[in-house]
Amino acid sequence: MPVSGSNSGDAEASGNFITQKLNSKTPFLSLKLYVVIAILSLCVFAALVLMILYCIRTNRSSRKRRMRVKHSSGSIPLVSKEIVEIKASNGTVNKKLDHFVKAGSEIGSLELKEEKGSAGEIRVDVVERGKVSEGSDTSGGSRSDKSAVESQNIGWGRWYSLKELEIATREFSEENVIGEGGYGIVYRGVLQDGSVVAVKNLLNNKGQAEKEFRVEVEAIGKVRHKNLVGLVGCCADGPQKMLVYEYIDNGNLEQWLHGDVGPVSPLTWDIRIKIAIGTAKGLAYLHEGLEPKVVHRDIKSSNILLDRKWNAKVSDFGLAKLLGPESTYVTTRVMGTFGYVSPEYASTGMLNEGSDVYSFGVLLMEIITGRSPIDYSKPAGEMNLVDWFKGMVANRRGEEVVDPLIEVQPPPRILKRALLVCLRCIDLDVQKRPKMGQIVHMLEGDDFPFRSVTNVLLRSHFFFFLNYASLL
């Protein structure tokens, strides 16, 4: 008992001491200590709140800038994101291009001459102003002329000087940023002749800029198609690599499908099918109209740009692979965007045009439903668009998958055709997937067979799960 009393007394004395200290006056405005502590606590709390609000505001501003959607009469930013670069294939043209890029890093001003030999080989000569390359004529000029040299014609496009692109983009001002991502930043530029272009300034992370530079120039430098974004020129100044594209001023499909467009989507059913057909035509040209064929490898809604007449233009070829005439596939590192990548490519790394067909099937589902391929805000059974879509069709609820923002629903016959195309594109057997040219005909044709379409859909769904179960 005496021990207990002693402890109690010590605690009481300690409490009195703390109280006296807190009530004692401090040199700061003669305020008591507890008042000073309260003021400091409030200041720290207020500072934390302000920092949190600032971070939220900055994040929202950045998100709005990238995802803002306007009507087609206005200007919508060209957005492409999450591009991962790869090594270009080791062909003759690529070796010439390597020489060109290396020279562009060492020389301030270049002139590229492109000729075709008797065997159809493309010869590219790189000439520095004031110097003579092998087999070329002297083109006099001093080093002082290099900074002011005009852009040169390089056969398929133009060679731009860094100074010219700086003027076009107002020194790459933030006001002219129309897209940004892991690959770099895209700027809106106005050239001296008044033409508007999109300038992609590639980030030089461990040489990635040079890789994408080579891939895009090799893949689409000479390609011209109404459903492919045109590469109109390029610039290589030391480590800086830039690509100059035609400017598309009506945004991308992702913005129109998932942005804040109001209670009724401007994308009617007819417009959506037009976009799907245009995308299919662009891919069909890459797969079937070029030699070597080009596998895009990153088909997704943010890479489908739209003009003011809703014409689709496939963009961003930074992941593209070239496939020779005797090659059925190419083995490469798995890249792409989660939700769009075909299962066989994801599991084996073997890539061919069938991988693009699968991605197109997912894109077509996205166009029809207005849903993202992967949406974690949905219930567990609806997060994966492909699984949810197949389940709805198998349960004869195909009409319920249509985007509710479409004011006028499509006729049942037309809807069934689109649903069937989706299911055929995502068939687990690559050999059973249609070619992109066939898909164009299926989406356009009025003579598409519709006898027992529901049964075809159900069989497709059944065999999908049967094949999937065999892989487990």
UniProtKB/TrEMBL annotation:
Annotated compartments: Membrane
Gene3D superfamilies: Phosphorylase Kinase, domain 1 (3.30.200.20), Transferase(Phosphotransferase) domain 1 (1.10.510.10)
Reaction(s) the record says it catalyses: L-seryl-[protein] + ATP = O-phospho-L-seryl-[protein] + ADP + H(+); L-threonyl-[protein] + ATP = O-phospho-L-threonyl-[protein] + ADP + H(+)
Binding site for ATP: 200
GO molecular function: ATP binding; metal ion binding; protein serine/threonine kinase activity
CDD domains, per the entry: STKc_IRAK
Keyword tags: ATP-binding, Kinase, Magnesium, Membrane, Metal-binding, Nucleotide-binding, Phosphoprotein, Serine/threonine-protein kinase, Transferase, Transmembrane, Transmembrane helix
UniProt-listed Pfam families: PK_Tyr_Ser-Thr (PF07714)
Domain Protein kinase: 172-464
Signal peptide per UniProt: none
Gene Ontology annotations for the cellular component aspect, listed alphabetically: membrane
Entry keyword annotation includes Transmembrane: yes
Protein's name according to its UniProt entry: non-specific serine/threonine protein kinase
